[in-house]
Amino acid sequence: MTTDFARPYQKPGERLEDLGLDGLYILQDPDAFRFNIDSVLLAWYAAPAVHRKTRTLDIGTGTGVLPLLLYGRTHTQSIDAVEIQPAMADMASRSVAMNHLEGVIHIHEGDIRNEPGTALVRGAYDVVVTNPPYMPKGKGGVNPDRALALARHEITCTLEDVAAAAQALLKDRGRLFMVHRAERLVDLCAVLRAHQLEVKRVRGVQPFPDKPANQILLQAVKRGHPGAIVEPPLSIYQSPGVYSAEINAIYGTDGPTSKNTY
Questions:
Q1: Angle between helices 65-74 and 86-98 (to 10 degrees)
Q2: Which residue, 9, 10, 150, 163, shows the most beta carbons closer than 10 Å to its own?
Q3: Chain centroid to CA 77: how far?
Q4: How are strands ordered across the β-sheet holding 125-130?
Q5: CB 32: neighbour CB atoms within 10 A?
Q6: What is the CA radius of gyration of the chain?
Q7: What does 19-85 look like in DSSP terms, one character per residue?
Q8: Residue pLDDT, tens place only, 222-234
């Protein structure tokens, strides 16, 4: 898909995707890592904490979907996003420019392991969001495509790296929002607490109402008091092929479509 407004920003082979939100579009490479429903759910989960003057940071932004979705939901005026892969950071920057949001969303190419990371300011952020690599290094098959491998495995960004960066960059009482695999919940809680990030809310995401959660949405607070709320689970489908009412409401449609499931 190509439209006239995208031509100055779109490179050969890239797809233009309609986010179905506030008239926003994003560029995607069909042969590289493309965002999925996890990012949509994370943006929805974090949005109530993001207001017009909130300073928000996305760690590992990929092609920039979380900043675009957060802007579409909140019209916040300050989002930084950091990405280690130059090609991804370039695509994210072009998507931001295509949507005329250069004054709101700032893409930084860099490594969060550099203290405190690229042009980011220590202790400056109210909210950090992240959809980090899910698989520990050495577990599961690693994709031979390096871009896909970095997006899915903890090769250049581990849980420890994310937690350390969030601890350094969040204000006291600032909030971290994350989506991850449910099987790693114990790892997440342990690593975050070790970095003064106290888990406050957890919500499981299950494929069907009678199935265990395979993903989790999580909120932690820097220097927060112990005590977490386990929220009611979110079901993707109410029955095979039929999205749940909550997923329909999140998308503002009858669930994900071919344009926004990825």
A1: 30
A2: 163
A3: 18
A4: 105-109, 79-83, 56-59, 125-130, 170-181, 215-222, 197-206, 229-235
A5: 18
A6: 17
A7: -SSTT-EEEE-TTS----HHHHHHHHHHGGG--TT--EEEES-TTTHHHHHHHHHH--S-EEEEES-
A8: 999 999 999 999 9
**Angle at alpha carbon of residue 258, lines to 252 and 260, rounded to 5°:** 45
Give domain limits for the chain. 34-251
Is residue 185 within 8 A of residue 230, CB to CB? The reply is no
Which tokens hold the place of 64? 């920039």
Amino acid (one-letter) located at 165 = A
pLDDT at position 142 = 47
Give long-range contacts, CB 8 A cutoff, 24+ apart: 141-147.
Answer: 145/31, 145/32, 147/32, 147/33, 147/85, 147/87, 147/88
* Homologous superfamily, domain 34-251: Vaccinia Virus protein VP39 (3.40.50.150)
Of the pLDDT bands very low, low, confident and very high (cuts 50, 70, 90), residue 1 is: low
> In what helix (H) or strand (E) does residue 98 lie, and over which residues does it extend?
helix 86-98
d(CA 189, CA 260): 31
> For the chain, how long is the longest CA-to-CA vector?
52
Beta strands in the chain (DSSP E): 15-18, 25-28, 56-59, 79-83, 105-109, 125-130, 170-181, 197-206, 215-222, 229-235, 237-239, 242-243
